[in-house]
Write a structure and sequence with these properties.
heterodimer, A: alpha/beta, Rossmann fold, globular, B: about 325 residues, alpha/beta, 4-stranded antiparallel sheet, about 20% strand, binds adenosine-5'-triphosphate, binds iron/sulfur cluster, binds magnesium ion
């Protein structure tokens, strides 16, 4: 396997949130001891319910905010402190794409100008070379110079997201964090952008962190998928294998909840209870109030993420593989 | 058997721009019908028009019959009795459908008073029964709470309770789970289907999520640019779509298991209603388009029992499908 480009070790991040009418503050453990490794040229998918800490993880990995504890290493070097010269150099090799392409673009500028912007900022190439690069980038995302002359309002949602992608690729980054990049798009348009992302990754050898709540899209694009629940990774494994044979009860419910044409809802696992509240993380296994298989121990002890065979890791008291049993 | 709701030639134009262009749709008693299609295809407008809920500047023509009685353009008093009574609708944006400054009890009791002949304590008891029915724990106390005190999934349950207040024969659910997490979405869909079974209620489920529709509906209608382009029993549509747009939609959905394949993306975008192409509206994006497609818009025609397609090459596209399947 290729060497890791991104190595995340035990990162945590909490925010204080005012709650109740007396303005008491409660700590929200948005990310709690997350470790991840992304080999060069590969894609790690991150799924999980709203508020599980996916975007926060993405921001920390990009160096947009520091973790309270833990470390992010990029290409073998520790992430530099924000807004130092070393940080800028590292940051130039990383880019991100968000869900809302209209919000990411300036409505008052032609889109070609916006694709050129990072080249202007970093002073890359002569003006003529920059123009050439913009044309190449437009072609790479399957658009024409005529599209480049338009304003964001005159492009469709899928075209705008491709402009955002072209701009992210302008500085030839090695690493791209995509946070729900296709969630706002219709199915048919989603497929255009997903295919394009797969193609560009293969051509350019990009490394991706791909965040989405859509299991189908994540599986399509990822090598490895991590499932988060209330700030922790509860299961991680290869994309094909994970959704075909989920081991963690939460992943099982998530896969079962993902509707599939040709299958009727009979036999689906429907979780009781409300979505989890990040400000009131349950003791023990955070999933236990909703877990159909919880035992007494689950309310007391936090299950550790451990290898259960192959490249699968699961954090559940009931799922133990040969390796963990041997080690115990 | 006469359909419960029968829509014929329903057309809607906003400021002279047609957005619905002759929709025919029938819904049987107790049936679950799914409505899918890309954003802007007219899924919401179809039912807003049918129930007389569009703004005044919308020009609506055609016919909508409920149990054989015309309701399109019916007097306001009659429509008020239909809406929330015989036909209830859950709207696409739940947050805006509840009044933030009124308790849940006030809002539920208001619908109950409007549609049911209940007085005093009976109203409150019924409100509580409805909250219980949709699975809000501690319903008695929670009646006094305000909308912001509930989670997104609970707000959607309350919306369903309000819709059920009038004992409707039909529930129109417009994207009832789109804003919710997958596991909560599964809860709500299960709730809807159990209520449907219990009360023999018909349902129209509007969604852009093919999976949701496939799993929860008996029959599916696919909309494109203001028209129905294919209609079929759910299992047949997903196993064997005939209209090129329906085929592409299903091909664009990444599989959750089995081998990964390249997605079949539909090139181009949905046409702007103000610049609708002549003939078939899908022609600019259709791999099977030929000259005749640009001449006249194909009409929805039966191709088999319970199946109808609006494509002049329904047969050719069937063969193409078989060709792909034989590969
Ligand atoms: N800047 C912030 N200040 C306070 N709380 C925050 C902040 N950013 C995130 N949080 C909280 O941290 C938790 C994790 O948020 P995060 O955005 O990472 O979740 P997510 O998995 O990306 O969710 P979604 O799927 O809804 O995008 C949430 O409870 C959120 O409210
Ligand atoms: N009040 C209105 N005034 C003008 N145009 C409108 C109005 N309501 C809807 N439209 C237009 O009618 C067309 C159909 O809209 P509709 O809301 O039915 O789409 P939809 O299929 O429900 O899409 P979505 O999946 O995004 O909800 C769109 O082009 C929309 O812009
Ligand atoms: S540790 Fe217990 S509560 Fe947590 S997922 Fe496993 S069985 Fe369920
Ligand atoms: S009528 Fe022609 S353009 Fe329209 S869907 Fe059929 S083959 Fe395609
Ligand atoms: Mg997020
Ligand atoms: Mg709609």
């Amino acid at each position: 396997m290729s060497p890791p480009l991104v190595e995340v070790t035990e990162i945590s991040r909490s925010y204080s949130m005012r709650s109740g009418m007396f303005g008491r503050t409660a700590a929200v453990h948005a990310v709690d001891g997350v470790s991840l490794t992304i080999p060069k040229g590969q894609t790690l998918g991150l799924v999980g319910e709203s508020g599980s800490g996916k975007s926060t993880t993405g921001r920390i990995v990009l160096g947009l905010e520091p973790p309270d504890s833990g470390e992010v290493r990029f290409d073998g070097k520790s992430m530099a402190a924000p807004v130092t010269a070393a940080w800028r150099t590292q940051r130039a090799r990383m880019q991100m794409i968000f869900q809302d392409p209209l919000g990411a673009l300036d409505r008052r500028l032609p889109v070609a100008t916006q694709i050129r912007e990072p080249l202007d900022i970093h002073g890359l190439g002569t003006p003529a070379e920059r123009e050439d690069r913009v044309r190449d980038l437009l072609r790479a995302v399957e658009l024409t110079p005529a599209h480049g002359a338009r304003y964001p309002g005159a492009l469709s949602g899928g075209q705008r997201q491709r402009i955002v992608l072209a701009r992210a690729l302008a500085t030839k980054p090695d690493f791209l964090v995509c946070d729900e990049p296709v969630s706002a798009l219709d199915v048919s348009i989603q497929a255009q952008v997903v295919n394009l992302l797969c193609d560009l990754q293969a051509q350019l050898g990009l490394t991706l962190l791909f965040i989405s709540h859509d299991l189908r899209v994540v599986r399509q694009i990822s090598n490895v998928v991590a499932v988060m629940y209330l700030g922790r990774i509860v299961e991680i494994g290869s994309a094909d294998d994970l959704f075909a044979r989920p081991e963690h009860p939460y992943t099982q419910a998530l896969v079962s909840a993902s509707p599939a044409p040709g299958r009727r809802s009979a036999g689906r696992i429907v979780l009781a209870g409300d979505p989890p509240n990040p400000a009131a993380r349950p003791q023990g296994c955070a999933f236990h109030p909703r877990c159909p298989r919880a035992i007494a121990r689950c309310a007391r002890e936090v299950p550790a993420l451990s290898t259960v065979g192959g490249n699968r890791q699961v954090a559940c008291h009931l799922v133990t593989g040969a390796e963990t049993r041997d080690a115990a | 058997m006469a359909p419960l709701v029968n829509i014929e030639g329903l057309s809607v134009a906003f400021n002279g721009v047609p957005v619905l262009r002759g929709v025919d749709l029938a819904l049987g008693k107790g049936e679950a019908l799914g409505l899918v299609g890309e954003s802007g295809s007219g899924k919401s407008v179809t039912w807003l028009a049918a129930l007389g809920l569009l703004p005044r500047h919308a020009k609506v023509t055609g016919s909508v019959r409920l149990n054989g009685r015309e309701i399109l353009g019916a007097p306001a008093a009659q429509l008020d009795r239909v809406r929330g009574g015989r036909v209830a609708m859950i709207f696409q944006d739940p947050a805006s459908a509840l009044n933030p400054v009124l308790t849940i009890r006030k809002q539920l009791c208001e619908s109950l008073a409007l549609h049911r002949d209940l007085q005093g304590n009976a109203v409150k008891a019924e409100a509580r029964r409805l909250l219980d029915l949709v699975g809000i724990p501690d319903a008695g106390r929670r009646l006094e709470a305000y909308p912001h005190e509930f989670s997104g999934g609970q707000v959607q349950r309350i919306m369903i309770a309000m819709a059920l207040a009038g004992n409707p024969d039909v529930l129109i659910a417009d994207e009832p789970t789109t804003a919710l997490d997958a596991t909560i979405q599964a809860q709500i869909l299960e709730l809807l289907s159990s209520i449907r079974c219990e009360f023999g209620m018909a349902m129209v489920l509007i969604s852009h999520d093919l999976g949701v529709v496939a799993e929860n509906c008996d029959r599916v209608a696919v909309m494109y640019a203001g028209r129905i382009v294919e209609e079929a029993p759910s299992n047949q549509l997903f196993a064997d779509p005939v209209h090129p747009y329906a085929q592409s939609l299903i091909g664009a959905l990444p599989p959750l298991d089995g081998p990964r394949r390249r997605l079949t993306a539909i090139p181009g975008t949905v046409p702007d209603p103000a610049m609708m192409p002549d003939g078939c509206a899908f022609a600019p994006r259709c791999a099977l388009a030929s000259d005749p497609c640009g001449l006249a818009a194909p009409t929805l025609a039966p191709i088999a029992n319970e199946r109808a397609v609006a494509c002049i090459r329904a047969e050719a596209s069937r063969r193409a499908l078989l060709g792909i399947a034989a590969e």
